[in-house]
Each structure stands twice: as C-alpha cells, then as structure tokens.
Amino acid sequence: MRASDVMTRSVVAVTQDATIVDAAKLMISHRISGVPVVDREGRLVGIVTEGDLLRRAETGTERHRGAWSGWFSPNSRLAADYIKSHARQVADIMTRELVSVGELATLGEIADLLETKRIKRVPVVTDEKIVGIVSRADLFRVLVSGGCQSTDENNP
C-alpha cells in the first residue's frame, strides 16, 4: 500500500500569518494534534503541533530558566525559547525542518519516518503543495481493517 491509499485528502491547514490562537482553535475544532502551514501559494512551509503550543506565556507554562542556565545555555537558545513562548503568529513557532513524502511512498517507509523522526504525522506533497497527510492513526486503521497481510507463514 502507498501513501495515496491511506492519506487524509481533506487537509486542514493554516497560513504563516495566522495567529497562534486561530491555529489552536482549528486544531481543537477538527480534533487534530497538528496542522500544516502553507504560504499564500499553497506550498507547504511548516507544521504546528500541540508540542509547539505546550510552553506558552498565556498559560503560565513557558520555560523558566534558573540563574545557572544562563551561564551554560547559548543565548540563541534562550532567545528562541522566549520567542516561541511569547509569539503571536504561526510563523514564529512552526517547525520549518519538514519531513514529507510523495504519494507513492510505501506504508513501511512512512512507518520508518514516523518512528525514526519521532513524529505523529507526515504531509504528503506534490510539487511542494500538500495533497494529503498520513498520521499514525491512518496506519492503525489499515491494521484494523485487515489491509495488512501477514508475511509469517506460521501465522496466517
């Protein structure tokens, strides 16, 4: 089976200039834990997940650093943490180093990516535009539906 066989085609996405609150509301209303970020031409440029929203000033969950951490943490890391916890737009917190696949990626390749990259979903792209998304839940649905065939001759 391939990505095109199991992917969710009606992908909910946000633009880079969307607010973080808008992205969070979208995720809640669609019961999803991550949303792709697209530019004005519809090209995939990032992804925002629940993890990106975990440490926020509004909820009092921003990372507090002790006095010692200032000595040992690079200034760029401290600045990045501050920006991420106080940002207002998706562009400021989205993950830009994307992992994506094409429509012909096998489910094995996708499972390997999800496992090795420690991610929960992978966008499916064609010509830099998102055409679908495959999540761990999509792979579980294949398993439950009987779409997986056993390769063990002793266990049909």
Characterise the protein shown here.
It is a single chain. The protein has helices at about 5, 20-30, 70, 75-85, 90-95, 105-115, 135-145, and strands at about 15, 35-40, 45-50, 120-125, 130-135. It is of the alpha+beta class and about 160 residues long. The protein has one domain (about 5-145): CBS-domain, CATH 3.10.580. The longest helix is centred in the middle third of the chain and has 12 residues, at about 75-85. It is globular. The two termini are about 20 Å apart.
SSE topology sketch:
Blueprint: H1 3-6, E1 14-15, H2 20-30, E2 34-38, E3 44-49, H3 69-72, H4 75-86, H5 90-93, H6 107-116, E4 121-126, E5 129-135, H7 136-145
Parallel strand pairs: 1-2
Antiparallel strand pairs: 2-3, 4-5
Keywords, please?
two-stranded antiparallel ribbon; 3-stranded mixed beta sheet; 156 residues; globular; CBS-domain; alpha+beta; disordered C terminus
Query: Helical residue percent?
Result: 25-40%
Mean pLDDT: 80
What is the CATH homologous superfamily assignment? CBS-domain
CATH class: Alpha Beta
Query: What Rg is obtained from the alpha carbons, in whole angstroms?
Result: 18 Å
Give the domain tally: 1
**Strand count, sense and closure of the main sheet?**
3 strands, mixed
Enter the CATH topology name. CBS-domain
How many strand units?
5
Mind telling me which CATH architecture this is?
Answer: Roll
Tally of contiguous helical segments: 7
Q: Could you list the spans in which at least 5 consecutive residues all have pLDDT below 50?
A: 150-156
- The strands making up the biggest β-sheet line up spatially as 1-2-3
Q: How far apart are the first and last residues' alpha carbons, in Å? A: 19 Å
Shape: globular
Question: Given the helix and strand composition, which structural class is it?
Answer: alpha+beta
